[in-house]
């Protein structure tokens, strides 16, 4: 969530805080009314606004605080519109698919049947969009994306609303959650604490739909030789597969593929280390 804000000159910093602080303070003092969904949206957006305010990101803090105020007033608050954000092209398709998944869930009434999970999914989507626009903190991007995926996995387990009439068309199957992305340190195939949290989310999503299989894809950045990166991405995929089976997942449900340095999330020149490329992707497939 950091945009090198600490480098801002103190006088400019003080000048820019007045309006945003007022917006934030007004939102923080509200007593939300209305649906449980709007109350949960208010709490979630205020948490985001507080996080951004603590890092001197007045613009985004102000934006989240405004959404919190609208939710507190009982207004309909939509998920972030991607057209309003400068999203990297490499992330646009994934975010667009996620937003479509969220909108479909809201359309089927999860804001009433599971208001807290629905609000969490929307807040984490907006968090993901904001972090992806900044595109400088892979862990924060992953945290918001994984929070969204976990909330959607919970929503996907909710019973759909009953059909109005027998003649109404059957509802489309809910999309599978994910992908779940685990990032690794340079030249490492070891799982850190963040990685284990993502693994837990993937395991929960997989066990919630027992017939689902998992596709594990290992990747590396372009630092080092192609042969070395091929072997390293295989080690990363194997580490993730082993961890999932140790958690209790049937090994027959796992398939694995290795891409080495060939399928980068972020395009770089050869020899460049890039954190977003050092990853394993876990996809749920029918």
Mean pLDDT across the residues is: 87
Broad shape:
globular
User: How many whole angstroms does the radius of gyration measure?
Assistant: 21 Å
Q: Biggest sheet: strands side by side, in what order? A: 1-4-2-3
Helix content: 40-55%
* Most strands sheet: 4 strands, mixed
What's the multimeric state? single chain
Given as residue ranges, the uncertain stretches (5+ residues, pLDDT < 50) are 1-20, 161-165
Number of domains: 2
Order of helix and strand elements from N to C terminus: HHHHHHHEHEHEE
How many DSSP helices? 9
CA(first)-CA(last) distance: 35 Å
Which structural category fits the helices and strands? alpha+beta
How many strand elements? Answer: 4
Amount of beta strand: 5-15%
Mind explaining what this structure looks like?
With 286 residues, this protein is an alpha+beta fold. It has 2 domains: 12-156, no CATH class; 180-285, OmpA-like domain (60s Ribosomal Protein L30, Chain: A). The chain has 9 helices and 4 strands. Strands 1-4-2-3 form a 4-stranded mixed β-sheet. β2, α9 (226-246) and β3 form a beta-alpha-beta unit. α1 (10-28) runs parallel beside α3 (58-72), α2 (36-54) packs parallel to α6 and α6 (115-134) packs antiparallel against α7. The longest helix is centred in the last third of the chain and has 21 residues, at 226-246. It starts with 9 loop residues before the first helix and ends with a strand. Mean pLDDT is 87; it is low at 1-20 and 161-165.
What key attributes describe this structure?
single chain; 286 residues; 2 domains; four-stranded mixed beta sheet; disordered N terminus
């Amino acid at each position: 969530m950091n945009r090198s804000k600490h480098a801002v000159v103190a006088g400019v910093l003080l000048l820019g805080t007045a309006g945003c602080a007022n917006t934030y303070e007004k939102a923080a003092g509200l007593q939300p009314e209305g649906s449980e969904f709007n109350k949960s949206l208010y709490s979630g957006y205020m948490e985001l606004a507080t996080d951004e305010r603590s890092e001197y990101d007045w613009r985004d803090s102000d934006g989240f605080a405004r959404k919190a105020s609208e939710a507190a007033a009982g207004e309909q608050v939509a998920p972030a519109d991607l057209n309003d954000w400068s999203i990297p092209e490499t992330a646009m398709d994934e975010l667009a698919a996620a937003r479509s998944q969220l909108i479909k869930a809201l359309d089927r009434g999860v804001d009433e049947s599971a208001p807290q999970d629905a609000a969490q999914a929307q807040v984490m989507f907006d968090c993901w969009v904001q972090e992806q626009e900044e595109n400088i903190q892979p862990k924060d991007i992953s945290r918001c994306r994984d929070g969204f995926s976990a909330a959607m996995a919970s929503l996907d387990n909710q019973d759909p609303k009953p059909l109005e009439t027998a003649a109404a068309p059957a509802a489309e199957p809910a999309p599978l959650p994910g992908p779940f992305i685990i990032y690794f340190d340079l030249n490492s195939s070891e799982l850190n604490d963040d990685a284990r949290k993502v693994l837990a989310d993937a395991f929960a999503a997989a066990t919630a739909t027992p017939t689902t299989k998992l596709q594990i894809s290992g990747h590396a950045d372009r630092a080092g030789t192609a042969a070395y990166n091929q072997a390293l991405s295989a080690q990363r995929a194997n580490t993730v597969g082993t961890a999932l089976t140790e958690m209790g997942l049937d090994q027959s449900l796992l398939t694995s593929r290795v891409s080495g340095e060939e399928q980068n999330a972020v395009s770089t020149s050869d020899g460049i280390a890039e954190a977003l490329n050092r990853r394993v992707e876990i996809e749920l497939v029918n």
